């Protein structure tokens, strides 16, 4: 399972590709960041993000895209731009018929570090350990995107285990009922 | 000057095309609404909006796109989706090298009705009068998109007059200085 993680943003949009297989540690394929100039027009910035994301998809052929869920409660100056960068990511995914999953920042932090309140340094450290890297992907947005991809692999695996257990329980119950 | 106005939204995205020429009343070309089902996945909804906007652009070849500016202060459940629909609109515009202008709801209301606090019924009424229609474009989102396009024509015309006056003043000053 190859996951493309995207930490949406206009100035720095983190991107990370991670491969995962059951029972094996995840492997980093590529991590980086899409930058657009803060003084460029918003439509051109969104177009630049779309163009580069298309290149990431073409280069790595991910099977799923994991993107950070944006909340309107984050009532900052940047929330609209972040939501639009996330929207462009979902648009690219839909165009390639790739499933998209959104994870909240605290879900990512909890999955990677065990705490939903971890800071950027802790996320970078855990990403480095999990992927057995010499150092954390830089900048922090790239590490966050990689963390999103790992979170998706692990939550997906967890959900698959729960689904399998429920399925088994149902089958056992069916047998008892028969 | 042909303007495509977009009132962004996921469930109902208003679209209106208006032609304007100096000294003549604006003329409605087409108004309508792009609908996406509320129970569909967000990426598919954004893709549907993009696909239909592309069709509007191909059908009418506008010279400029006017889209409602989305604010994070509108701290509702829908602000993220609205921002993403506006982002898709800007993306389509940038792809076709069309200039995009954002207008706030109160700028549109003030331009059309003379009051920044006009309600939907007043906007519908004024759009009907300005364009000499038998009745207001329906639903209200279509009328809002048409109002955005008219607002752009009128604000643009006003800005052009101011720019021309400033230009003339500068030339006069240059002559005096020479």
TrEMBL record, chains A, B:
<keyword id="KW-0234">DNA repair</keyword>
<dbReference type="GO" id="GO:0003677">
    <property type="term" value="F:DNA binding"/>
</dbReference>
<keyword id="KW-0255">Endonuclease</keyword>
<keyword id="KW-0238">DNA-binding</keyword>
<dbReference type="GO" id="GO:0006310">
    <property type="term" value="P:DNA recombination"/>
</dbReference>
<feature type="active site">
    <location>
        <position position="7"/>
    </location>
</feature>
<keyword id="KW-0479">Metal-binding</keyword>
<feature type="active site">
    <location>
        <position position="141"/>
    </location>
</feature>
<dbReference type="GO" id="GO:0005737">
    <property type="term" value="C:cytoplasm"/>
</dbReference>
<dbReference type="InterPro" id="IPR002176">
    <property type="entry name" value="X-over_junc_endoDNase_RuvC"/>
</dbReference>
<protein>
    <recommendedName>
        <fullName>Crossover junction endodeoxyribonuclease RuvC</fullName>
        <ecNumber>3.1.21.10</ecNumber>
    </recommendedName>
</protein>
<keyword id="KW-0233">DNA recombination</keyword>
<dbReference type="GO" id="GO:0048476">
    <property type="term" value="C:Holliday junction resolvase complex"/>
</dbReference>
<comment type="function">
    <text>The RuvA-RuvB-RuvC complex processes Holliday junction (HJ) DNA during genetic recombination and DNA repair. Endonuclease that resolves HJ intermediates. Cleaves cruciform DNA by making single-stranded nicks across the HJ at symmetrical positions within the homologous arms, yielding a 5'-phosphate and a 3'-hydroxyl group; requires a central core of homology in the junction. The consensus cleavage sequence is 5'-(A/T)TT(C/G)-3'. Cleavage occurs on the 3'-side of the TT dinucleotide at the point of strand exchange.</text>
</comment>
<dbReference type="InterPro" id="IPR036397">
    <property type="entry name" value="RNaseH_sf"/>
</dbReference>
<feature type="binding site">
    <location>
        <position position="68"/>
    </location>
    <ligand>
        <name>Mg(2+) 2</name>
    </ligand>
</feature>
<keyword id="KW-0460">Magnesium</keyword>
<comment type="subunit">
    <text>Homodimer which binds Holliday junction (HJ) DNA. The HJ becomes 2-fold symmetrical on binding to RuvC with unstacked arms; it has a different conformation from HJ DNA in complex with RuvA. In the full resolvosome a probable DNA-RuvA(4)-RuvB(12)-RuvC(2) complex forms which resolves the HJ.</text>
</comment>
<keyword id="KW-0378">Hydrolase</keyword>
<dbReference type="InterPro" id="IPR020563">
    <property type="entry name" value="X-over_junc_endoDNase_Mg_BS"/>
</dbReference>
<dbReference type="GO" id="GO:0006281">
    <property type="term" value="P:DNA repair"/>
</dbReference>
<dbReference type="InterPro" id="IPR012337">
    <property type="entry name" value="RNaseH-like_sf"/>
</dbReference>
<feature type="binding site">
    <location>
        <position position="7"/>
    </location>
    <ligand>
        <name>Mg(2+) 1</name>
    </ligand>
</feature>
<comment type="similarity">
    <text>Belongs to the RuvC family.</text>
</comment>
<feature type="binding site">
    <location>
        <position position="141"/>
    </location>
    <ligand>
        <name>Mg(2+) 1</name>
    </ligand>
</feature>
<dbReference type="GO" id="GO:0000287">
    <property type="term" value="F:magnesium ion binding"/>
</dbReference>
<keyword id="KW-0540">Nuclease</keyword>
<feature type="active site">
    <location>
        <position position="68"/>
    </location>
</feature>
<keyword id="KW-0227">DNA damage</keyword>
<dbReference type="GO" id="GO:0008821">
    <property type="term" value="F:crossover junction DNA endonuclease activity"/>
</dbReference>
<keyword id="KW-0963">Cytoplasm</keyword>
<dbReference type="Pfam" id="PF02075">
    <property type="entry name" value="RuvC"/>
</dbReference>
